[in-house]
């Protein structure tokens, strides 16, 4: 199965925002916005659900420009957190890995 690993290790192929963007699916955008309002921020609206993936060319979710993980990766000249010696001890990306442990596994698979 195809994977598109983000800076933090999430698989963008399975991300509803990316799926909605590529399919131009406004129903999925609305559903994703409702779900993300509860999970992340009540300020999320369907119009914000546009993203091709944080490492891909194209449109990005509004949070990407503010993403501490993505900004750290770029500031160090890395592709992903897998390139960093602090991968398993980093408090920044550790928050993602605490809730989505498969993201750490995705990054480790890039090292092997």
Structural summary, described in words:
α1 packs antiparallel against α2 and α4 packs across α5. It contains 5 helices and no strands. The model has no long low-confidence stretch (mean pLDDT 94). It has one domain. Helix content is 45%, strand content 0%. It is mainly alpha-helical. The longest helix has 14 residues.
Considering DSSP H and I runs of 4 or more, what fraction of the residues is helical? 40-55%
In terms of per-residue confidence, which ranges show pLDDT below 50 for 5 or more consecutive residues? none
Distance between the termini: 18 Å
- The total beta strand count reads 0
- Outline: globular
Q: What is the string of SSEs from the N terminus onward?
A: HHHHH
* Arithmetic mean of pLDDT: 94
**What's the alpha carbon Rg, rounded to whole Å?**
14 Å
Beta-strand content estimate: under 5%
**Could you say which structural class the secondary elements and strand pairing correspond to?**
mainly alpha
User: How many strands, which pairing sense, and closed or not: the largest β-sheet?
Assistant: none
Determine the number of helices (DSSP H or I, runs of at least 4 residues). 5
How many separate structural domains?
A: 1
Set out the fold topology.
Blueprint: H1 16-23, H2 26-39, H3 68-75, H4 91-99, H5 101-111
Helix pairs in contact: 1-2, 4-5
In brief, what are we looking at here?
This protein has 112 residues and is mainly α.
């Amino acid at each position: 199965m195809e994977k598109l690993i983000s800076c933090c290790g999430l698989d963008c192929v399975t991300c509803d925002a990316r799926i909605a963007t590529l399919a131009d699916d406004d129903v999925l955008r609305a559903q994703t916005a409702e779900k993300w309002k509860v999970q992340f921020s009540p300020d999320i609206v369907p119009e914000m659900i546009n993203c091709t993936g944080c490492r891909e060319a194209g449109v990005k979710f509004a949070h990407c420009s503010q993403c501490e993980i993505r900004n750290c990766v770029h500031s160090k000249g890395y592709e992903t957190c897998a390139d960093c010696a602090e991968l398993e001890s980093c408090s920044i990306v550790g928050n993602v890995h605490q809730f989505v442990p498969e993201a750490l596994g995705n990054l480790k698979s890039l090292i092997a």
